[in-house]
Amino acid sequence: MPVTLFVWGPGRIVPVRVTSFSVDEQSFSPMLYPVRASVSVGLTILHPSVFQRTTGAGDATTNIPLKPEEELAVAAYKFTMVQKQVLATANLLNSVESIINMLPI
């Protein structure tokens, strides 16, 4: 299955699997071409473990190298998660600073 990357801005790029897709045509031109439609897309974010494959059995298992597009998907996931953690930490520090500033000292 090909790798699909969902890009939701420069800091949010994740590998996904499309789980559902539907188009509801709402309005048509006089020649019956759709001019207005609503689209619904269902996505599942793929964890890097989805791309790991092994061969063999028992203690003799070996990892199969990732394809270049799979390496890109894993790197995009890790980049997004690191950025998410950095932003969460920055938000926590801002919250602590706000609480300290509210204290009557």
Report what the structure shows:
There is one protein chain. With 105 residues, the protein is an alpha+beta fold. It has one domain (4-102). Helices cover 33% and strands 36% of the residues. It has 1 helix and 5 strands; from the N terminus they run E-E-E-E-E-H. The chain has one helix spanning 68-102, and strands at residues 4-7, 13-28, 34-45, 53-55, 62-64. The strands form 2 sheets. It has a 3-stranded antiparallel beta sheet with strand order 1-2-3. A two-stranded antiparallel sheet has the order 4-5. The longest helix has 35 residues, at 68-102. The chain is flat, with a radius of gyration of 22 Å.
Question: Which features does this protein show?
Answer:
single chain, 105 residues, alpha+beta, three-stranded antiparallel sheet, two-stranded antiparallel ribbon, 5 strands, flat
TL;DR of this structure?
The chain has one helix at 68-102, and strands at residues 4-7, 13-28, 34-45, 53-55, 62-64. The chain is 33% helix and 36% strand.
Beta-strand segment tally:
5
What's the story with the biggest beta sheet? 3 strands, antiparallel
Rg over CA atoms: 22 Å
Order of helices and strands: EEEEEH
- Counted by DSSP, the helix tally is 1
For the largest beta sheet, what order do the strands appear in spatially? Answer: 1-2-3
For the termini, the CA-CA separation is 61 Å
Please state the structural category. alpha+beta
Number of domains: 1
Give the uncertain stretches in residue-range form: none
Helical content stands at 25-40%
Q: Average pLDDT, to the nearest integer?
A: 91
Instruction: Provide the β-strand percentage band.
Output: 35-45%
Q: Which shape, going by the Cα principal axes?
A: flat
